[in-house]
Amino acid sequence: MTVVAVDDTDSRTEGMCTTYLAARLAERLDGVERSVLVRLSPAVPHKTRGNAAVAVHTATPPEAARAAAVELVERFALVEDASPGVVVASDPGVPASVEQFARDAVQRPCAPERALQLLADTGLDAVGWGDGRRVRGGERVPDDETELVGRGRLGALAAVGAWAAFDEWTYERIDYRAFDRCGTPREVDERSVFAAAADAYPAAWDTVDRVAGEPVCVPNAPGPILYGVRGDDPEAVATVADRIDAESVERSALFLTNQGTDAHLQPGVIGHLDGDRAYRVTGVVREPPATRAGGHVFFGVASGETTLECVAFEPTKRFRDRVRRLRLGDRVTVCGEYDGTLKLEKFAVRELNRSREVVPECGCERSMESAGRGQGYRCRDCGATAPGKETVRVDRELEVGWYEVPPRARRHVARPLVRGGFDAPTHPEW
C-alpha cells in the first residue's frame, strides 16, 4: 500500500482547493482504498485556508504515485501564494513517529522545521515548493525563507500518519464545479438542499442551518467546490449530494475525514493552559456574561483562584443567548481554542445555581431596608426585623447538558451534538 499526501495547494484569495487536487489524483491512481481528509489544528496562527491535508491510499507504486502528485501540484497549485508539499510513504507501514506527529498536528502548533527533520529522519520521500523554488527530500529551509515555507510538507506528513493515529472517522461527499467557473457565483437551488438535508438528518449533518435559513454545505470561497455534504453514513451523504439541483458537476469524491470528531480538543486545567491549542475545561462561573462591543459575549469561569475568560463571538448568533443565561455559581465545561481567552465552540451545564439572595419582604408586604452595617433588615412601617437576606429559588432557562454553536459557525473538526457520544444530555442546533 502506498500513501501519497498533499497540502497547501490553495490560496486565501485566489481559491483552488487541496481536496480538488486530491480528487484528480485519486482518478489517476490504481486500487484506491480510501482518500483521507485531515483537518489540522484550527487554533494555530499559521495555517492554510481550510487547514486541511489529504492522503490517498493506493495500490499504485510509490514512484508513480509521486510523479502523478507532482504533476498535478505543478499544474493546479497556486505556488506563488502557498507552499505546497507532497509526501509519499509505502509498506512496511507508517513509522510511529509520523503517527505521533499526526496527532500533534491536529492538537497543537508544529513547526515546519520539525516536519522537515522528521522527513529526513524517516527517509520518507517528500517534494516541496516555496517562494517559487523546489525543495526536495526533507532538505532544511534556508534561514532567509519565510517561516511558512514547508507548511505543505508539514500538513502532508500529518495526513500520511493520520489513518494510523485516529480511530474515529466521518464522511464528506464533495461535488466540484467545472474548473473554468471558479470565481463565478454558484448556481445551487437552496430549496433542494433543505429538502434533501431534512430527509437525511441526522445521518448527514451540518448540511444547512435551518434556523438561519442558510445552506452550510455551499461554500463562499472562490475555489472549485460546488458543495460538500458531511455525515456518518457514506450512502446518506451521497444521497443528499445527488438530490441537490445545481449547475453541472464536473466530478465527485468521497473522503473519510476527522471532521465532526472533536479530535482537536484536549483536556485542560484552568490556570495551566498553553496558547494556540483547543481545550475542554471545567469550572464555575465567577464573572457573569456581558455583551461587549461588536456583540461578543464574555464571561469568566474559575477553578480555585484562577479565572478563565471565555467568549462567544458575534458570528455564533443565537448561541450567545444560551451563554447570556449563565449565572454566577453555575458549574460548566467549556470547549474551544485558547489564546489567553477561550473561544467557545460548545459548553455543558453540569450544575445550575437555582437560588439567589434577596432582601426579605415583611409580612405587611413591603420590602425591608438595611438596618445598618451588620444589623440585618427592618421594615420602616411596622418595625419587623430580619437577620439577613433570604435565599429564594429561581427558575432557569437553561437545562443541564450540552449546548453548541449553530452549524453556520461550527469549526470543521468540532463535533456536532447530534452525533452523540457526549457525557450529558444534548441540545442540538440544526
Description:
With 430 residues, this protein is of the alpha+beta class. The protein has 4 domains: 2-165, Alpha-Beta Plaits (2-Layer Sandwich); 170-257, Glycinamide Ribonucleotide Synthetase, Chain A, domain 4, CATH 3.90.600.20; 265-354 and 395-427, OB fold (Dihydrolipoamide Acetyltransferase, E2P), CATH 2.40.50; 355-393, no CATH class. It is built from 8 helices and 23 strands. It has helices at 18-28, 62-76, 96-107, 112-122, 151-165, 190-200, 234-243, 319-324, and strands at 2-7, 34-39, 52-58, 85-90, 125-130, 133-136, 170-177, 204-205, 225-231, 249-257, 265-267, 277-291, 297-303, 306-312, 331-338, 342-351, 355-358, 369-370, 377-378, 385-386, 390-393, 401-404, 426-427. Helix 1 packs across helix 2 (62-76) and helix 4 crosses helix 5 (151-165). The chain is elongated. The protein starts with a strand and ends with a strand.
Query: Treating each run of at least 4 consecutive H or I residues as one helix, how many helices?
Result: 8
Would you state the CATH class of the largest domain?
A: Alpha Beta
Query: Widest sheet: strand order?
Result: 6-5-4-1-3-2-10-7-9-8
Which shape, going by the Cα principal axes?
A: elongated
- Based on CA atoms alone, the radius of gyration comes out at 26 Å
CATH architecture of the largest domain: 2-Layer Sandwich
Number of domains: 4
Percent in helix:
10-25%
Uncertain spans: 132-146
- Mean pLDDT comes to 92
Structural class: alpha+beta
What's the story with the biggest beta sheet?
10 strands, mixed
Euclidean distance between termini CA atoms? 39 Å
